[in-house]
Amino acid sequence: MRILLIGPPGAGKGTQAVRLAAHLSIQHISTGDLFREHIAHGTELGQNAHTHIGAGLLVPDEVTIGVIKERLARPDTERGFLLDGFPRNLAQAQALDGLLADSKLRLDAVLDLELPEDQVVRRIAGRRLCRQNHEHIFHVGYSPPEVAGICDLCGGELYQREDDREATVRKRLEVYRNETAPVVDHYQAQGLVTTISAHGQVHEVLHRALDAIG
Question: Which intervals of the chain form a coiled coil (predicted)?
Fold first, then answer.
C-alpha cells in the first residue's frame, strides 16, 4: 500500500505517520529524516540540502525530489510506504506522479488531515519545551505543568520556540494554503483523497485513518 499523509502544521502528521506505517507494516518516509540521513553520510544530495537548511532556506524541489527518488528505489519500499512531508507543492506532486508511473505504480490513498486554523494556532502556540530536555513537552491548555514555567520531570525552565509563536504559526498556515493545499486539489481530481478530522485523541485519529483506507 502506498499512502500520502497531508495536512496543515499542528495537525499531527508526524505522530500519525509513525503509527499508521507501523500498523500497516510499511515504510514511513519523512523528508526531514531523509535530509538528516543524507547530510550525515555526506552525499551530494545531503551537502546540497545542508547548504540551504543552514541558510534557513527551503530545500529546492530538485534536491527534495532526488532524495525521494533514491529512497523509493530501495527494496524495502516494495511492500509499500507512507509519505510524510512530501510533496509540499504542486511541482513535487507532479514529479512524484512521474516517479511512480516510471515504475508502473500509483498512490493508493491520500489522507488529508483537517483541523480548523484556530485549533492549529491553539495547539502550536500553547506548546512549551524544557530547556534542559526538549523531549519534555507541555501545553498550557492540554497538559500544563504543575508549576507554570517549570518542567515537572526535571525542574528545567519551560519556553516557547520562536516557530511556535502565534504570528509565526499564522505565516506557516498561509504558506500551507498557498503551496500545499493545491496538492490536495491535484489528488482530489484523481479520486484519491479522503479528508479526516485531526481533532481528538491520537488513537481516535488513527482509527479514522485506518477506516478510510479500509
Answer: none
